[in-house]
Every structure is written in structure tokens, then in C-alpha cells.
Design a protein that fits this description.
7 helices, globular, mainly alpha, Phosphatidylglycerol_P_synth, single chain, about 200 residues, CDP-OH_P_trans, disordered N terminus
């Protein structure tokens, strides 16, 4: 299989456009992340949930607009996963600062994202775009987001029900971290395969 075919398989051909509505939405989502983190770290959870909900809605909206109005762009393909990774990392960081989750979760998630960032840079040197999102990666990201929301909810009130919700959130987060790393392993294998094909 030629390198050109492999590139198309792993990276669709987006346009070189920058000033689009989806890109603006992705940028606003990135800008909202520090506000969410500060609110969570200060235990201002109700307002944090409102901003987080708006961010989640915008996540689906930008992709829908991009596909519907032919505004898929190279920068958009970069901004969207960056926003997802930053939201997860910064939210976990804020939960750690607020003493809601153990710090080892932050370290493990951060290490995985660092490895993925290096992989993206290496592939970019060989003219490859972002790898396609794998189902395991989507599942891991979804479980981490569910865990983050559950832990934020559990911090609003203090009773036996929220204590149970807190434990469920931690358990979901641990499973999410496991899937997050499994997806990372899959992406690394895909990246190595592309680099090996480059040598053929």
C-alpha cells in the first residue's frame, strides 16, 4: 500500500482555512478550560458544572457545523483533540488541588498525554496528520468525563448518597485511565506501523 493511501486512511484531507465558526467554537472551548479548573479547585461546583455543560455542548456543535457546511480544516483537526486533552488534564488537576482525587491519577493521565504529544510531533515530521480516533480512546475519554462530572456533583453536597457517588466516580475514573492508556498503546502501534511503512 502506498504512502499516499495510508495518509488518506489516517488523515482526511481538510482545507487550509482558519477563520471558521467551528474553529472559533473550539477556541472558546479551550479558553473556558482555565475557568472550569479554577472553579473546581475552589469548590464552586455548581458554576463549574454550568461552564462544563456549555463546553460539552460546543464539543459536538463544532464538528456538526464543520461537516454540514464544509468547514473541516487542518487547524480544526488539531484544536478539537487539544481541547479534549486539556479539559481532561486540567479538570483532573483541579480535582487534585481540591483534594477530591489522588494525585497519581493526574500523573498517569499527564504521562499518557505527553507520550501522545511526542507521537504526533514525530508523525508530523513524516507528513502524517492526526491518527483516527479509536473506539477505545473514545470510551476512555467518555469514562473520564463521566468520572469528572460525578466527582464534581459529589462535592456539592455531603451525605451518604454523594459519598457513594464519589466512590463510583473514582471507580469510573480508574477504568477510564485504563482505557485511556490502552488507547494510547493502540495509537503508538499505529504510529510505529506508519513510520515502518515510510522505510519500505
Amino acid at each position: 500500500m502506498s504512502k499516499l493511501i495510508i495518509k488518506k486512511q489516517y488523515s482526511p484531507e481538510p482545507r487550509d482555512i482558519y477563520f471558521t465558526v467551528p474553529n472559533l467554537i473550539s477556541l472558546l472551548r479551550i479558553i473556558s478550560i482555565p475557568f472550569i479548573s479554577v472553579l473546581v479547585s475552589r469548590h464552586e461546583m455548581v458554576l463549574a458544572l454550568v461552564v462544563l455543560a456549555l463546553s460539552a455542548v460546543s464539543d459536538g456543535l463544532d464538528g456538526l457545523i464543520a461537516r454540514s457546511f464544509n468547514q473541516v480544516s487542518k487547524i480544526g483537526q488539531i484544536l478539537d483533540p487539544i481541547a479534549d486533552r486539556l479539559l481532561i488534564f486540567c479538570s483532573i488537576l483541579a480535582l487534585g488541588v481540591a483534594d477530591i482525587i489522588p494525585w497519581w491519577m493526574l500523573i498517569i493521565v499527564g504521562l499518557r498525554d505527553l507520550i501522545m504529544a511526542i507521537l504526533v510531533l514525530v508523525l508530523a515530521q513524516h507528513d502524517y496528520g492526526p491518527l483516527p480516533v479509536h473506539f477505545v480512546g473514545k470510551a476512555g475519554t467518555a469514562m473520564l468525563m463521566i468520572a469528572i462530572v460525578a466527582l464534581i456533583f459529589a462535592d456539592i453536597w455531603s451525605n451518604s448518597a454523594t459519598d457513594t457517588l464519589h466512590l463510583c466516580g473514582l471507580a469510573t475514573g480508574i477504568w477510564g485511565v485504563g482505557l485511556y492508556w490502552l488507547a494510547g498503546y493502540i495509537y503508538i502501534r499505529q504510529g510505529i506501523q506508519l513510520l515502518e511503512n515510510d522505510k519500505d
